Amino acid sequence: MAAFREIDFQSTPMGELILRERYDPIARQDLLEIKLNDEFLMSSLFTVSETALGTLAMSDSTFDELDVVVGGLGLGYTALAVLKDPRLRSLVVVDALPEVIDWHRRHLIPAGATLATDERCRLVHGDFFAGLRPNGELDSEQPGRIWHAIVLDVDHTPSHHLHPSHADLYTPAGLARIVGLLHPGGVFALWSDDPPDEAFMATLTDAFAAARAEIITFPNPLLGSTATATIYLARTPA
Fold first, then answer.
1. What domains does the chain contain, in order, with CATH numbers?
2. Which strands sit side by side in the sheet containing 225-235, from one edge to the other?
């Protein structure tokens, strides 16, 4: 019996990108996984914190209508959580890998059946980090957009980046650019695989009117233990 079923393989400028399905005998379930070279980008075994990222970003938002941008598509769990909020007016999901967007549009990833068809949602190929820099755009169809929430799940942690070019976002200047793209009282939400980082929390607190870190716990059946992730939440001055 094959250890896994390769659903799609793509050679990208970032490396070999694989969408695969496999049965895990420890977890006793079929898993959907995205791999880039030898690194796991996403697994359907661990989605609690990704869903919590979208849910917390929305619950912290106090507006009657919401325009939201999400950096990082993956298997789509964060975007699905955002879409569940009835106040949502528009959602733009930006991903650097057009192949991942294509998998959703072809419904090779289950979330794509919703994300690629909901009229409130657009999947956009682009560099989220470049879009935050001067003269950049997160939504080229509507230049100069201001958001009610900016949600990010790309890097492993504020100090462990998927690409070196991402590092400037986590600096005081990078966070100030996020503040400038949010409505007064707007929310910035960030996923991290590590416990709260005191140095980053200090930088976040200096940049925003309020900031906190929420620790999300979830079971890890592979290790028979509990795992954690961190959701950073910050709000601009009202």
1. 46-235 (3.40.50.150)
2. 121-125, 88-95, 66-71, 147-152, 182-192, 225-235, 210-220
Q: How many CA atoms lie within 13 A of 189 on its CB side?
A: 31
Q: What is this structure's pTM?
A: 0.95
The span from the CA of 72 to the CA of 52, in Å, is: 15
DSSP 68-106: EEEE--TTSHHHHHHHT-TTEEEEEEEES-HHHHHHHHT
First to last CA, the chain: 58
How far apart CA 51 and CA 66 sit, in angstroms, is 18
pLDDT in tens, 178-236: 999 999 999 999 999 999 999 999 999 999 999 999 999 998 887 788 999 999 999 99
> What is the pLDDT averaged over residues 56-85?
98
- Cα separations in angstroms, 19 against 45, 92, 126, 192: 14, 23, 20, 23
How far is it, in rounded angstroms, from Cα 112 to Cα 101? 9
CB 147 within 8 A of CB 69: yes
Closest CA to 235 of 100, 96, 56, 32: 56
